Structures are given as C-alpha cells and as structure tokens.
Write the structure tokens for this entry.
Amino acid sequence: MGLSDRFKDEKKKSSSKKNDKKEDKKVEKKSAYPSHVQADLEMLEDIECMVLNKIAYTPVWFEFTEDEQKKLIRDYLNARLALPENAALILTEDEKDIFVTRILASI
C-alpha cells in the first residue's frame, strides 16, 4: 500500500462520516403557512420567486405606496392561483396576507 492509497482511504472514511452526520441533522423547514398548504408549498415558493423577479424588474416599484405594493402583489398572486396548474393551491385571505407580508419583508 502506497502513501497515496492511504490518503484515499482516509478521504473515503471522512466523507462517509460527514454523510452520516448530515443524515442525523435533518431539520424540518418551518413555514408560516398552515399544514394544509404544506403539500403545495413548492408551488407557493415558485410563485414567491416569480413575484420577487417581477418586482426586481419593475424599475418604478419603490415609487408605489405600500398599499399599492400590497395590492399589486395580491393581484399577481390571485392571477397565478387562477391558472389551471395552480388549481390545487387554495389560500384563504389570511394566508394571502401572510404571503404579501413575506414578500414585502424580503425586499
């Protein structure tokens, strides 16, 4: 066994230990949304990304008042929820408020 072989073995051992530790430390992602939305959380996160991209490419975004911004975000969310591919995602008005608040907090 050469010197390089010894290092390869050490690398394998240390990487397998790291993988074991990663599996032990799985942390559940907490969400601000209720449990019935959790199943469709990925769709909702996609919509969040779309809204944030839309805001980023709107040069006059910060010229709108906060109420106008909230209305624009809510209108965009409602338009996205009306699409057939998002039909499974049903949000109450309170959940929509949470969505708008999260968006405004992240910009």
